């Protein structure tokens, strides 16, 4: 499309069937994608010489329960190109009954922490993650505290030492 930023244009050219929606705001473009090829798309955005999104700023989960948006969850990737000075948000909607997608740790090592955080806080699973375990709550914690239906009055005591040797 005329006047589209290079990132959106190249995503449409290369992965057109994966693009569900594009939202354009100055300095805050977002592309909603199907989940099937996220590692391929991430690798393309990182390696394409005209894009070079080498900096994964953040990955976060979102729960739309209160807004009654379907699907209930989304994973948002915030990317920045240090070389070209542009940024993009990638949004991947996920159904509550199948909140899982492929890890991008093989593309950006920094995704390790972010994916573990989304897993711990929202229960979103990342296939192929090298060590997908809780990172902010303890190993006996039940539930995911950033889900809108989590009972925040619930006490979650840790009564056992977690021995990594047995995992």
Describe this entry's structure for a reader.
The protein has 167 residues and is an alpha/beta fold. The chain has 3 helices and 7 strands; from the N terminus they run αββαββββαβ. The protein has one domain (6-166): NADH:ubiquinone oxidoreductase Nqo5 subunit (Beta Polymerase, domain 2). It has helices at 6-15, 38-47, 111-122; strands spanning 19-23, 30-33, 55-63, 73-81, 86-94, 100-102, 125-127. It has a 5-stranded mixed sheet with strand order 1-2-5-4-3, with helices on one face. It has a two-stranded parallel sheet with strand order 6-7. The model has no long low-confidence stretch (mean pLDDT 94).
Descriptive tags:
167 residues, alpha/beta, Beta Polymerase, domain 2, 5-stranded mixed β-sheet, two-stranded parallel ribbon, 3 helices, globular
Q: Look at the helices and sheets and give the structural class.
A: alpha/beta
Strand order of the largest sheet: 1-2-5-4-3
CATH domain topology: Beta Polymerase, domain 2
Number of strands: 7
- State the helical fraction: 10-25%
Mean pLDDT across the residues is 94
Main β sheet profile? 5 strands, mixed
The fraction of residues in strands falls at 25-35%
Which quaternary structure do these chains form?
single chain
Give me the CATH superfamily: NADH:ubiquinone oxidoreductase Nqo5 subunit
Q: Supply the number of structural domains.
A: 1
CATH class: Alpha Beta
**How large, in whole angstroms, is the Cα Rg?**
17 Å
Low-confidence stretches: none
Shape: globular
